[in-house]
Amino acid sequence: MSSTIHFDVDSEGIATLxxxxxxxxxxxxxxxxxxxxxxxxxxxxxxxxxTGVVLTSARRDFMAGxxxxxxxxxxxxxxxxxxxxxxxxxxxxxxxxxxTCGKPVVAAINGVALGGGLELALSCxxxxxADTPKALLGLPEVKVGLLPGAxxxxxxxxxxxxxxxxxxxxxxxxxxxxxxxxxGVVHEVVPPHELLDRARAWLRSxxxxxxxxxxxxxxxPGGVGMQSPSLAQTFMVGSAMIARETWHNYPAPxxxxxxxxxxxxxxxxRALALESKYFGLLLSGPVARNMMRTLxxxxxxxxxxxxxxxxVTRSRVSKLGVLGAGMMGAGVAQVSxxxxxxxxxxxxxxxxxxxxxxxxxxxxxxxxERGRMTAAESDRLLARILPTSTYAALEGCDLVVEAVFESxxxxxxxxxxxxxxIPKQAVFASNTSTLPITGLSEASCRPDQxxxxxxxxxxDRMPLVEVIVGQLSSPETLARALDYVGQLRKTPIVVxxxxxxxxxxxxxxxxxxxxxxxxxxVAPALIxxxxxxxxxxxxxxxxxxEVTVELQWSxxxxxxxDLGAQFVRPVNYAVMQRMVxxxxxxRRQGGGFYDYPPGAPKRLWAGLAALWPLAAQxxxxxxxxxxFLCVQALESVRCLEEGVISHPADADLGAVLGVxxxxxxxxVLSYIDTMGLSQFVARCGDLEAKHGHRFRPTDxxxxxxxxGRPFHDPAFAASAG
Length: 721
Ligand code: NAD
Hints:
721 residues; Rossmann fold; N-(1-d-carboxylethyl)-l-norvaline Dehydrogenase, domain 2; 3 domains; binds nicotinamide-adenine-dinucleotide
């Protein structure tokens, strides 16, 4: 009957509606699907021969949710909150018609049911799920700045109670079938091949064709509003926690809390209208646009390897070599073994290599303890990692990741030793964080097969990988490096060679700005809290201690030695120097900007006050926040102009996923676009007048502001391309 839903009625009158949104990689809610579902419901309601409905999917997924590429343009199109609310209420009304069509409806969930997909299932009277790890259920809208706008904030709490529903709505966590059953989100978990039979069996039991909340006397489990002391506490503590965690930068969690609090005290139809109103407010604002564009559209494009040079045959790494079994090498070995590769983990001695493997064993052991992995799985994975000090073991490696000490000489030596053994066509990648790739490739006898693959620490948790193209790296080498990152299921950005590449350069401006504030006499706690309030996960002084002042200082001195007369002292040069003189080298070395008393939380080092006395006049939080956000955004503009970054989307992704730039901004260049180019240039002009040349807007940025052309062209939602 339609292009997205197959409608079949069997001899018993059971209609099977099979969703198949043709032309989309997964089932998503398109305008066509909404129309087709609406027509199908007319037929279900009016065809006397139909006794019940099974809703299922012809794809691997049940329904993956809304088509974000459609939603992401709303803000740029100037859609008003009221019109955005109508988008949500149109779908919500169709789901409500499904729920009240008078015939029992069962969702046979064969795979992923996320967002609008789970909301569709929640509007059915019964839910059966296939017992497969692929069948993930959840409402992840909060992660892209939205709320579930088709009944999710209303039906889930009515089904499982507010206290159980709120964490799922506020964290967007996805549930495996067993947990969904335990929480009461679904009714049955069955072997995949029995899914449809069990769904039909439920229909044959002549069930009630109404939702619990449409029956007389229904009460939300656990109560609503401030009815019970524990619920009252949930809402009060919940609002406080949201304020503490979001610093009011993210409107979605507060909107979800309000929608649940207010909506659950209303009859469902009014509650759904209220939910749509909150959805409209979020969709018409910039935060949802920024988060959807960077964290969904552009992240997805990067993961589908949008930057991969065309015309190169796809490659796979079966055997990987890792040089250096330290913190990074062990991490790379772990994630590669997890992706199914055989890994040779090489260090100077067998003991050092074994220590690297031990690090992996410990991490996996924790996972086994937490029930996230079986002991057998952990053993299988560890068996793929061969610790060694013998270069001959690298024979047959498709790719080598070098993660030895950050020293040109050591790196050159291991490059030569490895290249003497590995196959002629193997790619050699350095994980250096600071040394330019082109210079390192001088040690290679095939510099066209030499590239940078820069992982972030901790490797198993950080999704970003910065792939650095040296002047001599060939397109085939780039393609093969990206194929490897794709195998790891991480998010690659591609940058051109330069000192500090992209992420370290941008990150460097953040810590330098924080340290510069200290030298100006700004209270250290004010510096740290201002950064946290802007949405940075850690303040610049705390993060300086983590990466160590010692490392920052040695990188600076290396640049000074390399660049000679061209070296420009960073704004925090004197601060680093004094900290090093004082022996305050960082957390690992016993203390830096903070003290780390054993068994107690870290605290700012009291000695800071003597080195940098407090200024009589303290700046406002707003000004400090603007300095943090602008200094990194401006450095990113320079990276774009210098060709270090080729695509605005890569700058945004690198900043948010790699260096903790706040996600609500959408990233460094989205931040400028959202503020407006002219306003950004004006703000930087003010900061330049007060704080110096580093805030000077570049000439081309001024020209761009005059032309009014944003970095992300709103005409193209998927600006990754
Ligand atoms: P690390 O000191 O923990 O480990 C380095 C390892 O290399 C040690 O186990 C050492 O024994 C080994 N090694 C030294 N010389 C060797 C040789 N000739 N042959 C074989 N092995 C040798 O260092 P790390 O933090 O893992 O950093 C490694 C590399 O990754 C550096 O280039 C660093 O800049 C880069 N990096 C580090 C981070 C980070 O956060 N630590 C992040 C990204 C990149």
